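Person: At home tonight, work slowly through the protein below, taking as long as you need, and write a paragraph about the fold.
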Amino acid sequence: MDNLDYGIIGNCRSAALISKTGSLDWCCLPQFDSTSVFAKLLDEEKGGSFEFLVDDAYETHQQYYDSTAILITRFSRGEDVFEVHDFMPRHHKHNNGKYNAPPEIIRYVKYVSGKPSFKVKYDPKLEYGLGQTEHHVKKDFVASLTHKLKYDTLFLYTSFNKRVVLEEEEIPLREDGYFMICYNEKILKPTTEKMALELERTKVYWLDWVDKTPTYKKFNKEIVRSAITLKMLTYDKTGAVLAAATTSLPETIGEVRNWDYRFCWIRDASMVIKVVSELGHKNSAKRYLQFIIDLMPDKDEKLQIMYGINQEKKLTEQTLDHLDGYKGSKPVRIGNAAYKQKQNDIYGILMDVIYEQLVKFSNDIENVEELWSITKGIVWIVSKHWREPDKGIWEFRGEDRHFTFSKVLCWVALDRAIKVAKIFGKTHKIEKWTALEQEIKRDIHENAWNSDINAFVQSYGSRHLDASVLLMEPYGFINARDPKYVNTVQAIEEGLSNDGLLYRYKNEDDFGEPSSSFTICTFWFINSLFKIGEEEKALELFERLLGHSNHLGLFSEDIDFKTKRLLGNFPQAYSHLALIECAINFSRKQSEEKILESIG
């Protein structure tokens, strides 16, 4: 498989990736950041998988059941047809407003026609495949366990003969059946009928969830698929949002830019929540706000750039040297040392989210006193630290610099804090905060603008362009039609665009020069073109970029400039939220034009 031709299934507790031929190649249980039970994605031999083996005459086709996270892989050989409906159960519990989302995967095998048959390769490798995984056939299930390094177990329930399954013998299919992979042993024995019911309940959950999302005139299908993907990357228990479901998928094949993304970056998650609340899902927004509030017990506590999904503050990075890595790209990392970095932009992003929630859900927000305390705390921290250099949005591991994006977001923190103060009627703070906001703005205009290049640059005193400065306009720092912004967009197009795809930056970082496109940057660029009035060009680039998604409309973090293959961790929350923002802009524009036509 040369591309990331995977579908994601999930239930807001964990997720799994299934290839377009129906192979379950990645899953961590019981939750997103647990050790893997299937990791063929990161090592063909030692990772472990759960595959349907069919003869070469079979063709496969894969799609989602519309408006759900249920993935259907269809196997057909003339008249002989069957489908595998993959999902992780999620539905309402009776009457208490909570959800049933156990750490398990159901692979419902649906008989369609003819006399299909298949074999199964059931090969979980627990604990990242570090020790030996043994299988034991019991009366009701197959137990897989490892105990060399750490004791762990996995249970397989199935309507098919367990010994036949384990020995990879032919299974003729004449009626529906199922496989159920569970982290915990079941109290009540599963049946095919019960699995069919789980499938229907999960389908209803997702259809109801999507029904709460507005319908858009243009790109509605893409918006819905991206929204479901973002929802699947949300951890129900705490409200945290993951950057991606995977670890160590490389930004460039064979290189070492491989990171663990199964954590909650404040920046990414805040942007996701902003978009999700735009789509009307206020509970996700409220729970994420609570996640942040719970992280800030002390008024002087500096926010980390990222946390574990259960609010862990220490995310020690280590390598799994026994795994070969995706397409041989080592090392495989778990944990992420970036949690120690200083990035001054996160305060502005957080203030922006707080302000947005107060505007959108003003009558429905608890903890307003805590939000006001957080607002004052953020202003205090920004006032003390905004002049200091940091690692920036791209997490350079070398020396700190005065990154333009970080400075702009310090300005955003003050701008939004002033607006929050007005909402709460705290006028005594406004004069002092406004003076600081103006000081930061002047500093940026004086030091981030390079008159030789005629653009805002990556960091103070540099000549390097950086796609992140395109966000100056969406965050309200500068007007879209301001000549300085228009010139910056044009300079970035000339300097960072490659066949319609954007580099984040072109200057060398800690690992050399970047050689793949960062997907979210291309979306930012398309939005900027749209805002400065180049709408046709923006639309053309957007439609072309959508064509680079995988067969299910999913995006990873990066795209290779030459081959256009997807690279980096997958699916990437950042990419999908930027897709939604672009799509909503185009859709609104079309609606406005139709209104004007009808008036005319």
Observations:
- The chain has 13 helices and 28 strands.
- The mean pLDDT is 92.
- The radius of gyration is 25 Å.
- The longest helix spans residues 573-599.
